[in-house]
Design goal:
The protein is α/β, with parallel strands linked by helices. Helix content is 40%, strand content 15%. It has helices spanning 23-44, 54-57, 61-69, 83-97, 113-118, 168-173, 176-189, 214-217, 222-237, 245-249; strands spanning 2-8, 49-53, 73-78, 103-106, 123-124, 146-148, 151-153, 193-198, 242-243. Strands 1, 2, 3, 4, 5, 6, 7, 8 and 9 form a 9-stranded mixed β-sheet that branches. A hairpin with a 2-residue loop joins strand 6 and strand 7 (151-153). Helix 1 (23-44) packs parallel to helix 9 (222-237). The longest helix has 22 residues, at 23-44. The chain starts with a strand and ends with a helix.
Length: 250
Amino acid sequence: MILFTFNIVNIEADSKNGVQISDEERLKISENNTKAILRILDIHDVKASFFVEISIAEKLQNLIKAISSQGHEIAFYNKNSALHEIEETKKSVQDFLEKQIRGIRQKDHKLPHEDLKMLEFNYVSNIDNANILFPFKRLKRDTEITEEDGISIVPESISPYSQLPYNDFVFQILPMKYYQNMVFETLKNDEFVLIYLNSWQFTDFSKYKFDIPFFRRLNSGKKMEDKLDALLTWINEKELATSRMKDYIF
């Protein structure tokens, strides 16, 4: 099973030449990037899970409703929000969606599982920072879903073929043929492959002058759209199964 997940997060980089890019503009970029992802998923009839960063979730009500109405899962991405902020946002989003938010993803700021369970999350999908100086280094890790404090823990996927993780940077940098081989070999060994990308990777950096390293501009914007389209085309040709996170776990 292939689990496609997308983190809806605003790009944090400063702008070049002192040009100011407001929070509203950054939010609009995230919204437009997400709409591009939705168009590609719709073409290939693939459902995914979208992890919306908590601090911007209530500002993206229309986008979240559109994502949900197209059959995708809405979950949360916790950047650095406090427990009470997560609780308030969860209640608000559930009220206007009329659906329960089951999943949460964490990276730098990780709350205890018992706290997440108290907020009635059913699963947590934690991710690591990719070390750009040595981005492909990963030790062997457990790739099976486990349960702790009554909540399902979904690990990052790692390829037994290459020992590379399925993080955002690896997708952006690797040739598609090599990435496809990774997916194919992993599915022979593991029950699922969890892929995650960030909405900001689909930004056109020739249009928006953010000050980011060259290796993060590489294959970004339209090239990321083309890579996602190519991967989904290959998945459908090979008749590989895909699923939203919540459907696969439960």
